[in-house]
Structure formats: C-alpha cells, structure tokens
Predict the 3D structure of the following.
Amino acid sequence: MELFDHILLGFSVALGLKNLGLCLLGCLIGTLIGVLPGVGPVATISMLLPITFGIDPVGALIMLAGIYYGAQYGGSTTAILVNIPGEATSVVTALDGFQMARQGRAGAALGIAAIGSFIAGTFATVLIALLAVPMARLALLFKPADYFALMVLGLMLAVVLARGSVPKALAMILAGVLLSTVGRDLETGEERLTFGWGEIDDGIDFAVIAMGVFGFAEILRNLATPEARDVVRGQIGRLLPSWAEFRQSLMPILRGTGLGSFLGILPGNGAVLAPFASYSVEKKLADDPARFGQGAIEGVAGPESANNAGAQTAFIPLLTLGIPPNAVMALMVGAMTIHNLVPGPEIMTKQPRLFWGMIASMWIGNLMLVVINLPMIGLWVRLLKVPYRLLFPTIVLFCCIGIYSVNNNPVDVYLTAAFALLGYVLILLEFEPAPMLLGFVLGRLLEEKLRQALAISQGSLWTFWDHRIAAVMLALAALAIVVVALPRIRRGREQAFVE
Amino acid sequence: MRIDRLMAALLGLVLLAGTARAQNYPERPITLIVPFAAGGASDVSSRIMAESMGKILGQSIVVENVAGAGGATGSLRGKNATPDGYTIGFGHMGTHAASVATNPKLPYDPRKDFDYLGVHLTTPNMIIVRKDFPAATLQEFVAWAKANGKKLKMGHNGVGSLSHLTCLLFFQQAGVEPTYVVYRGFGQTINDILSGAIDGTCDLVASVRGHVMGGSVRGFGLAAAQRTPLLPDVPTSIEGGLPGFQAESWLGLYAPKGLPAPILAKLREAAVKALDDPMVQQKFQDIGGSVPPPADRGGQRMLEIVNRDVERWMEVARKAGGVEEGK
C-alpha cells in the first residue's frame, strides 16, 4: 500500500508538464550525443550542468537522467550501424549488431535493442522502487577482497568470451591491465611507467584508449577496405523484429535484465561487466553458439538489456548510499550538491518527491526512448549514411572535441592518435581490442581492491578464504580457466568462434 | 637619440593602452580554471563564485575544469596564463599549501607565483568512524587506538590528499600509528566505512556531513576552535582533549602573478563583494561550508594563510617522514 502511494506520488511529480518536457529534452539530447561517436554522457552532462542551476532540483535531475540513458541508447545505435561503440558497455552490442546490419537486418537489431532496453528499463525501475533499501544492504556485503575476486572472475569470463585464440585474448587483457598501471602508485604516489613524462602522471584516460583503439582505428580500417563502406548505406530492413526473432530474444532479454540489474547495483562500475557477462551466458546457452559473432539476435538482445538494466540500477548505490558507482553518477552527485541535496539514505525520507519523481521519470524516459527512437531511427541512419568523406572528418572532429573536453588537455588528443595506430596494428594482427579495454577498465580497480584487501588483512592472503564471497568467485574463475584449457572444450570453443 | 625618443614614445603608447585596457576591464568573458573534475565541492564553489563575481563585473566568468596530478596540472596552467585578468584560477589548502610538502616536483610555488583574490569558503575537518566502532567519543577513540595500534584501519583518499594529511596530523597529535588503507576519492573510502571493511577516515565536514547527519557513521573531533552550525552535535577536538588537532580547509581564488594593479584591485573587490551576497552565503552553507569572517577575506589575507599553511604542512610531513620520501 505504501509502495503504491510512493509510485503514485512519483508519477504525479514526473507527469507534470514541465518535468515531462525536461525528460523529453534530456532523452533527445542524450540520444543525439550518444549517436555521435566521441562525445559521451560524461562530457555532455558536465557541459549541461550549469544549465540546471536555474531549474528546480527535481527537474534538473530528471533531465540529467534522461541525458544519461538517452546517451546509452544512442551509443548502441552507433555500435550497430557503424561498429563504433561509444562506450565500453556497447562494445558487445557491436559484435553481433554490426553483423546483423551487414546482413541488412539493422532495423531488427535496432528494434530489439530498443525493445530489450525498454523491458530491462521497466524491470529495473520496478526493482529500484521495490528493493532500493534491501539491495543497498546486499552491496554492503562486498568488501575489497570480494571486489577483487569479482574483477578476477570478470576478466576470466572475458577470456572465455573473446573471439579468436585464448592466448591472444589473455595477452590483450594483460596488456589492458598493464596500461591501467601507468601513473602514480596508489599507496606511495611514486610514478610508474611514465618514463618521466609528466602528462601521464595520472594515468591514461579511458576515453583516450576507447576512442583511439575503437573509434579511430575503426575508421582507419574502413578506409583501408573500400567495400566495407556499403555497410552504413546498406538496407536497414524492417524496424520491428519478426515474431520468431522476438521469441528467440525474449529469454536473453529477461536473463540480461536480471544479470544487469544485479551487477549495476555493485558500486565500482559493475554495470560495465553486465553486457560482457550476458553475452557469454547467451553464447553458452545457445543451441548453436557458432551463430554468435555472425549476427545472432540474442547477442544483441541480451547484452543491450543487461546494459540498460545495469545503467539504471547504478542509481541504487547513488540514491541509497550517496556513492557514485561511475563517472556519470559522480556528476549526478555534483548536480544534487548544487541543489542542496545530500545524496544518501536521507534522500528517500526527506525528499520523497524527488526520489520517487525521479524513479517514475526513469520509466517514462524509457518509454519515450522507444516511442521517439523507433520512428527516428531513419533520421539517425541518415545521419550515419552521410558519405565517408563527410562523415569521417566529422567523427574525427567530434572525437577530438570530446577527448579534449574530458580534461581540457590537448595531450589527450595526441595520445588518442597514438592509440589509433596501435588499434589499427592490432586489427591487422588479428588481436581483438575489446578484452584490452576491459582489462584497462577493471585493471585499476583490480589493483586498488587487491592492495586495500591486503592492507586490511595486514598482508595475509587468507583474507580471500575468510571472505566467502571472494572464495566462491575465485573458485569460479579458476574453473573458467580450467574449462577453457581442457582440450575437448577448447576445440569446441574454437569451432564456436570460427567465422 | 632618435631611437631613444621613439622608444619613449612607444613605451608611452603601451602604457596608455595598458591604462585604457584596465579602465574598460573586463571587456570579454573571464576564464576560471578549476584544477579538478566537475561535480566536487571545489567545482561547485567555483561556479557559485563565478556566477556572483560575473554579475558584479558585468561579464560572464566561464569555468574550465583542468583536472590532473592532484590539482597541479590546472594550477600550473593558471600560473602560466597571461596576467591580463582574463584568466583566474581556483586553489585550496591542498593545491596551494599542502602540495609544497607532499609533492617535491610541484611545478609552482604557491608562496610566490600567484596574486591571490581571497578565500571564499572554509570547512573544518573531522574524524568519522563506522557506526558500530567501539568508541563513542574522541577520548575513547584515542584510547582504543593506543591499545590496538596497527589494528586500527583508517582510510584516506590518496597520497597527499587532504584526508591523508589530516589523518597524519591527527595521529601525530595522538601519538599512534594506525594502518592506512588508500582509496581513490571519498566515494570509495566512505563505501568501505559503511560496509565495515575499515574503521574510519579524517575528512572535510562538507564531505561527511550527510553521512553523519544520516547516522550511518559516527563523528567526533572537529578540528576547529568552535562547533560548526552545520553539525552542532559534533564535539570539537578541544572538547575531546586533543586541542592540537586544528585543521580548517579553505578554498580560494587567484590570478597569475603580475596583474596590472587596477585590474587586480577590481578582481579582489569583486571576490570580496560576492561573499556579501546572501544567495552565495546560502549556497555555500548548503554545500557544507562557511563564508570566512571579514577579517579573513581578501587577497592579502589569503597570501598570509597560504604562507602559514605551507609551514604547517611542511612540519607535519617532516615529522611523518614517509610522506616526503614516498612521494
């Protein structure tokens, strides 16, 4: 009964004309920026933050949230149509989504991404409303040792799901972890692997590597192979997936939603793992795993749902504990602070209008994304159908602006160029860059959590045994490696990845 | 002779142009460099100041976030900016005092390289512990720390961060050496305090206020002479019997050294005047800080505060030894 009152209160706030308009505006700006490769939600939100000074807190947060999931959605569009994932989370979508686009089924891929995201979003919204309080307690069970084990498990899963040979995937993950150690040491402040070059004291920015290795390198590859140009111009096909395709996608969507919802709650950007985990689960469960990487619709439906569910449940640690699990949420903290709101457990009790209004607006925002974007896919496609001689310089320009705007530092742009070359060489040598990116993202956390866990246990490795969650996850990680190493399974896996 | 006269004429022209420029200042928008990412207390306070000072000067002030190296990257850019009044910067106790003690490669000297505009916000530091920690007061906490030594696990937000230095200062005063667990930023530290993985931290009232008020952590040992109206229930370090633990963090603005005197005067006046704006005072209180008393406002006073705190933190670092060595 109380929950019903809360939801009613939420909708009465979110359905106000002004808040509805702000939600729509946020979703539109977010999608537009998300579609353009290079300018991510972090850059957008920080640029738009000052605008929200003048709006009341509820409206400001509703608009910022709209930008956030709009950008997530727009990122998948680009991943499917141009094979350029705007963010780490849409890397997986590109694998099968782009293959579908190649086969003239771009419409079905975009459609199922939207439908999956909507189902995931609806579920995640209900979940936030229902479980905000008890779920926050669950996240608190995770100590540094458990986080470390979770990262190890995540990286091992990434090896399992990577295309191509296991040693190559492992090498790329380790290269990513190594890149993440560049910069100041956490505990001593000593410089590591900087070769005395002050500009990388703070390490290499995620955007620099992602944009270079994925965005720019992809452009280089496209320019080298003229026939790939037709992909963007290719048939979009019917927008709604067929009934058979939908039935095929339903279980992956539900599984992805569950996975994403769980991982999103974990502070420390667990949501980034969600699409990877969902993809490997779907591939394992599929009757014919060989279709994955060849345009399997489950490979789009599952990870997209997981992505959106995770993006949304990431609000739980923010709203219940005041802990931002990622950079975008950190900006949300800033926006709340400006409006005299202390993010944390008090928000729910002291600002019920804001808390429930924001939750209701999440669902409305998701609905808007489907309603607006399905008809507007044509527009986004036309945006991407622009000839390469116009499209590529524009993308490069936007990427440069985007990268510059992360730290307002020109060196980041040069570094991106260097990573573009590296990425191109990797593609030529048939190394998959996705595991490297994941290794980079998780590597930093991996090291931090390991050292924190060991500082807490004062050097004793038994801490990973004493923390039962950690012990179970490490065991699972070991199992994953053993399974992959078994000759029979390895052969099967290699068959699965043959293109 | 002729060349001399030409030079004199040229010099005169330049001077004239200079005066004219100072009189019309500001003719275009001013950039305010914030050496941290958007969203934190530093960024928010800068944007509030930018808005108010912009109104006073009749030009907009645009905030540019240049994050990196604990604020050193952006502050270096501020130091090297053309001293024409169109680039100013933000600095706080960490970037413009403690950094001298913690970063031997600091590419600027806060005592010499800046013309200060004034401190606009202060917030004291305090100790927080997880809510089931077996100590409710500062005395009990110090006694527990002395009895258990390394078993006490204190988190901080990174080498050289304000929370690190505050912890060092506190435990020097208390005469104990706890185990330090290092995090990247307050979000991570507080998470592990809430989950009970570590025991506590030493941080700004502005950062921990929400958690103390919400009852999810216990706070004591406010490092100030008087209790703060933001957290009236938290006793000071003096009440807790450790009067040497005094650490108030300040946030302020600067211009690169060598600004023409009339322009500097205009900027300083605007920075001081903005603090009288009730909207500014309200917003600062909302983010957990207070506007400094009139005696502590202005650029001259800020330079004194910088000099004082550089000495203070050098002393703390010298005693700790490991900090300088580790950096």
About this structure: Chain A touches chain B through 46 residues (CB under 8 Å). Residues 227-232 of chain A have pLDDT under 50 and may be disordered.
